[in-house]
Amino acid sequence: NQWTREARYRPLSDLAPEVYQLMKEEVRTSPWRFSFHIQPPTGLLNDPNGFVYHNGTYHLFYQWFPLGPVHGLKYWYHMTSKDLVHWFDEGAALIPNDDPDSHGAYSGSGFIKNDQVHIMYTGNKRDAEWNRHTSQIVGHLRSDGRIEKHLPPAIPTVPDGYTEHFRDPKVFQHQDVWYCIIGAQRNDLTGCTVVYRSEDAEHWTWIGELDTRYDQFGYMWECPDYFELDGKGILLFSPQGIEPQGDRYQNIFQSGYLIGDPLNLPDVTFQHDDFVELDFGFDFYAPQTTLAADGRRILVGWMGLPDIAYPSDRFNWAHGLTLPRELTLENQQLRQKPVQELTALRKETLYAQELTLEHHIMPAQAETFELELSHLQLSSDQLELKVRASDQEETILRYEAETKRFTIDRSKSGAEVPAVEFGTSRSITLAEPLHTLRLFVDRSSIEVFLNDGEAVASSRIFPKSTSQGIVLTGDATAHLAIYTL
Ligand code: FRU
């Protein structure tokens, strides 16, 4: 395929239904398809969008380019779930076929108003000279599964002082007033967020730029999210243009948060601590949160990054979403744990016992599984866990007791390793000695949660389906459980 501009902006409706069916079938039977993660039926998935809970159902949309593994004309694809584990495919819900979104229905968020799922998103339009024109559009989900747009756009243009990189509105309510926070680039090409307010979530007035201590922090902030947790204000965003610094900021783009006092909304100031990355893995970007039925704050991210090629591209699909995580606050730090509902994925128990580890064991073989190591007491300098291992390949997780450094090494995770120019290992120094590790392995991903959510890493790997070895090396006592998923 030649991904010319024309090919990237071709609508799905141009394709004969049989041709699209064939494409779907080819993708469905191609290598590395996930078994329990959200993935596109064809083409490319990126940011999670419109994540919201309503009347017993979670709605989660994602950015979707149907025709290939590239960024082109973006739709919103719609998934629903009762339990955050089993997802029902609702198909394309938001179609970029109006003038203000003629070149893409870009990212945005969901909210409930008048007992209906509403969304606010960015309309991306290119003019004849290919200049970008950005607007923010409100819509609602009809009972036929399609989003009805409330046109003309609620915020039709970009305010003075900012470039057309102005997108990804996140709507939230505070004391009966609606607010939205938007990712922006100032005219001097630095990133920030701006805030609007509204009485009805349809007519929006500018309040101002959110004043943080990060005045010069990259050239664009994408996908902001704001919420409060236990009396703290938390701003998530995905800054672009941050240089690596030790173990930090190793990926092409980052995503993380600022935590502080709740936003002072009248004058949009924010007193906060230092920026913290959300995930130390290779593939994580543009996360979005919502509130669950029982008040939990749940986060889902894109398990991928812009501008990186992946081995599945040649099979005409790319990327998935992370598992949903529950966010909690402990000692003023954000913790991220897999949502408790995920235990429903467990099929067969391959291993479950107290373990006295001397040197190494191979407790099981599996392709898609959950592994939980708890009550870990290490007596050697290091603990090593290899997964998806065979004679030729392995993905290595390693912990060094003295430095409390935890490393993921995917240099040998398969014949094709993505983004090698950004390195093949990622590390983090833990605050607590490693005592718990919970790992979810799918056909082409690993997500590891350390110390009950102190740190998380999400990474794509592309091993052979026959590489199923699990090898644990070190001297330790622990409880080990392994379940097929
Ligand atoms: C982040 C992003 C958003 C934009 C969307 C377009 O990955 O660039 O800023 O709305 O993707 O697909």
Automatic annotation (TrEMBL):
Domain Glycosyl hydrolase family 32 C-terminal positions: 342-475
Protein location: Cytoplasm
Catalytic activity: Hydrolysis of terminal non-reducing beta-D-fructofuranoside residues in beta-D-fructofuranosides
GO MF, any single term: hydrolase activity
Keyword Zinc on entry: no
Functional note: Enables the bacterium to metabolize sucrose as a sole carbon source.
The protein, known as: Sucrose-6-phosphate hydrolase
Originating organism: Exiguobacterium undae
